[in-house]
Amino acid sequence: MPPTLSPTGHVDTFTRDHLPPPEQWPELVLDPPAPRYPDRINCAEELLDGTIATHGADRPCLVGEHESLTYGALRDRADRVARVLVEDTGLVPGQRVLLRGPNSPWTAACWLGILRAGGVVVTVLPVLRTDELAAVMRSARVTHALCDARFLDDLAAAAAVMASTPHVIAYGGAGSEDLTARAAARPAGFAPVRVAADDACMIAYTSGTTGTPKGCVHFHRDVLAVADTYSAHVLRPTPDDVFTGSPPFGFTFGLGGLLIFPLRAGASSVLLERPHPGALLGAVAEHGVSVLFTAPTAYRAMLGRLDGHDLSRLRRCVSAGEHLPAATWHAWHEATGLRMLDGIGATEMLHIFVSSTDEHTRPGSTGRPVPGFEAVVLDDDGRPVPDGRPGHLAVRGPVGCRYLDDDRQRDYVRDGWNLTGDTYVRDADGYLWYRARSDDMIVTAGYNVAPAEVEEALLTSPDVEETAVVGVPDPDRGQVVRAYVVLRDGLTPDEDRAERLREYVRSRISPYKTPRSIEFRPVLPRTATGKLQRFRLR
Q1: pLDDT of residue 530
Q2: How far is 442 from 207, CA to CA, in rounded Å?
Q3: Burial of 89 (0-12, 13-18, 19+ CB in 10 A)
């Protein structure tokens, strides 16, 4: 059973009132090295004031495309944002504030300012459109919104159809009503609102790889816990580290890797609004980046552009968001000498819970549980399977899934374990090997085929830029294996090339796993965060 919640520090208790019933909560692992926190905290105060007390206010903190901020300047801006929310709009602790904008110092200051004011931040991707924004606003009962002025139109249209119109403020624009002007006119300083450690500080929405996004509620203690487990024990950052990467703040992979983790360590972060592979390499060289967060597809794209870029400061290359093929790991290592850290996380769990480390890396394996977390592989009845046999990945740790008013909580949490929806195999040494999303496993003529294994084989071909493998219905075999392939530039997609690829796969893995059909595509369907949408291909 989950622990009893502390008395709330929120005035507006909507989020706590719509948590799952206690019997559907995951079991939390709070034994060392999982950290413990005071009963009353504000995670933004810990990330700013706590870090400043240790490392000083004058340290570099955020580098944007148009400005850079020290820790002191970021705290000052966040305090002024909090003042505007409380003094101008009447925000009370617990109200939900939607945040929409690209990764930038202003977006970061808004995120921290909302939390310092006691609000619950609902960070969304800038690419969401009116109907998608309206769905999130209705789900979270959003009362306020801060939005980059360049992305205001869709948000304003979504706000207009709400039963109760949220208070919307733009930032980064012109005029006296813009947040930049209003914040500048406010006095310095703001006392962060300390609430219960288990009060909500954010509602993060899943990226929709399997359909309708779900709102995941995370507490103030959760934000600190992922920094004090994964970041502290796997990344091991120092104050001299410089972070950058491609995932947006609306994707918890990016929120942790580009804001929470560097702030917790007293390090700095380079925030890119358009983080394409060329921009990432440029930032690494220009700013002496040492910690890089992005997805496997971006690492593959960067491989052909490394010439002329100084990567000498780079020491950490983190890959997550989708499975990291062994072929990509080896290609990156051969080209750079750097060993990528693979990891799997989930919006439901806030960040990465299984990862490779400096000491424990096997290309193709996701790694082992992050210190503070436990992971097992279970059968359909919830019983552990022997090593070497595929099953459902189940995890627990100091954080866990709490969907906002969503019946799917019963599917994600069973017997206290968080079921990630992934099929894995654990080997005798405790390493976990990805096989497929559980609903992606292909059963053809009685054989189980893991899409990841077929994709690994295809990606070793010099002809293949990207690929996705799915099962499609077949009257004789139940399902057959189909591969969608993006060819490298200049290659012709035709049946001869498809047959050559099939022969190539047959030479590397069992013939029954070979795709019966190969369909060439110019691009593969992905979410705005870069995750592959296999359900669209199916």
Answers
A1: 74
A2: 23
A3: middle
As beta bridge partners, residue 487 has: 464
| Helices and strands, counts by H and E, the chain | 19, 27
Q: Do the domain assignments include residue 431? A: no
Phi, psi of 63 (to 5 degrees): -115, 115
Question: Do the domain assignments include residue 433?
Answer: no
**197 alpha carbon, distance to own chain's centre:** 22
Structural domain range at position 155: 14-426
Listed residue (482, 498, 491, 487) closest to 465, CA to CA: 487
Nearest C-alpha neighbor of 84 from the set 200, 193, 184: 184
For the segment 458-476, the average pLDDT, to the nearest whole number, is 89
**Pair (334, 246) in one structural domain:** yes
Report the C-alpha gap between 417 and 400 in whole angstroms.
9
> What's the pTM?
0.86
Choice among 14-23, 129-138, 369-378, 441-450 with the minimum mean pLDDT: 441-450
Tell whether the model's pLDDT for residue 1 goes beyond 60: no
Which neighbouring-strand residues pair with 364?
A: none
* Cα distances (angstroms) measured from residue 229 to each of 262, 289, 372: 14, 22, 6
CA dihedral 385, 433, 224, 250 (to 10 degrees): -120
Per the CB < 8 A criterion, the answer to whether 214 and 206 are in contact is yes
Q: Looking at the 3D structure of the chain, how many domains does it have?
A: 2
Q: What distance in Å separates the CA atoms of residue 271 and residue 269, rounded to the nearest whole number? A: 6
Domain end marker among 426, 452, 484? 426
Examine the domain organization and report whether 360 and 299 are in the same domain.
Answer: yes
